[in-house]
Write a structure and sequence with these properties.
This protein is an all-alpha fold. Helices cover about 85% and strands about 0% of the residues. It has 1 helix and no strands. The longest helix is centred in the middle third of the chain and has 71 residues.
Length: about 80
């Protein structure tokens, strides 16, 4: 029978082997988790920089639109279109 092949010593060794493998997985998971935290912090900083760039771009576009509109109005007034 298969049961007779599993002595107490073999079961203990198997248990220790399984525990060691789970400990190894836990260590690798902790390392991955630490690297992910660093990566997310970097991405968060990059997103913050991107937001600032987008805000600056928005105000630049609004400024160009206002300048174009005022220029057009000035030209139309100069041509006495109004």
């Amino acid at each position: 029978m298969a049961r007779e092949e599993w002595t107490d010593a073999r079961l203990y060794d198997f248990k220790e082997n399984v525990n060691q493998r789970f400990d190894d997985v836990d260590k690798r998971f902790d390392q991955v988790e630490a690297r992910m935290a660093i990566g997310f912090a970097e991405v968060k900083g990059e997103v913050k920089d991107l937001r600032q760039t987008m805000v600056h771009g928005f105000f630049a576009l609004v400024g160009m639109q206002a300048t174009s509109t005022l220029t057009l109005i000035g030209v139309m007034i100069g041509l006495k279109v109004f």
